[in-house]
Amino acid sequence: MTQNPVLQKLSNILGPAEAPKFITATCRSLGLDGLDNPQDRMLFACALIERGGLFEAIGRAIKIQAILHGAREP
After folding, report:
1. Helices marked H in the chain
2. Cα–Cα dist 32/54, whole Å
């Protein structure tokens, strides 16, 4: 079983306990039910990019992966 790449990236900086909480809160604020498809991951990535700093770097990595899996720019 492979771990969700978004969770994995955020766990590296927020820790394994805080990353899922952050993902849930961010998804809720974006009106997303989860990050199950590339387009949802694209929207999530754009929200991270807007935060700047380390979140921006992680958001850009997630965005590239989403594009490679078929997502389009919002």
Report:
1. 5-14, 18-30, 38-51, 53-68
2. 22
In a domain, 27, yes or no: yes
Distance CA 46, CA 59 (A): 6
Q: How many domains does the chain have?
A: 1
Task: Read off the tokens for 31.
Answer: 């009106």
Tens digit of pLDDT for each residue in 38-68? 999 999 999 999 999 999 999 999 999 999 9
Closest CA to 12 of 58, 48, 59, 44: 58
Q: Is residue 73 part of a domain?
A: no
Does residue 41 lie in a domain region? yes
The reply to whether 74 falls in a domain is no
Rounded-to-integer distance, Cα 5 and Cα 31, Å: 20
- Please give the model's pTM, rounded to 2 decimal places: 0.91
